[in-house]
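Quick one:
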Amino acid sequence: IKWIARRILYLYQKIMLCYVNGNCDAIFCHYPDAVDCFRREGFKGPIYMQTQVGVNANMFTPDQSLRKEIREKYNLGDSFVFGSATRFTPDKGLGDIIEALPKDGNWKYLMIGSGLPEEEEVINKQIIAKGLQEKIILTGYINRSKMPAYWNALDCAIHVPRTTENWVETFSLAVVQAMATGKPIIGNTSGSVPYQIGPDGIIVKEGNIQALQDKISWVIENPEHAMLIGEKMMYRALKCFSVQHLNEMFYNTIIDIYNDTFNSINHDMTSCCLQPK
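Output:
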């Protein structure tokens, strides 16, 4: 039965792909690998890297009062605070983060998000096994309107998803939200993460726990340098992934498509992200 279901799904997707290749004037993607996929599947038209899930630059911005609010709420004091915001599924790499966190030191980790009861149980067991109950704070689900405050409370965000047979990170909104509040990001080579963080970010190889641990330690030991990286992350987020920038690009691109032209300036939402001198 499963074989028949997979075959039916394949045929349905094949029909849809043929329709797209033959009838679509343009395709919008989130990151470079997606462009390559459409090219391999035979799409000949223009492809634009423009996400429709950008960050609201008026909402996500550095704010010391919000930072103070959350740090007092969780009694974080002067700790160096890491954090992530994601669902508690294995493909989001939370297990890798727990394994990579140091045992000692003046740091805390805000694990923002939630999952199914069995997923949360796995996370809790791993935290206990590592002896990090006093270091890792599980906040539970946080409403989007409160997320600017939580990102502000951090000193460094971490996002290290794991690619699976059926899933890959295509664009993490959490990453660009943290970037917009001026936070350095430790990311990995999975899916869209390197593209989002850019050449000035902190990147480790997907699944490399030792490399992740080394970068976590480096950030703790070099907070001023980390802050400079955070400033570059904020610049990239606002220039490349803000809803204001994306709305303008989308409008210009639609005009291009209507006029049957291809403007390379609108091809990639990060084309304007050169750092100021």
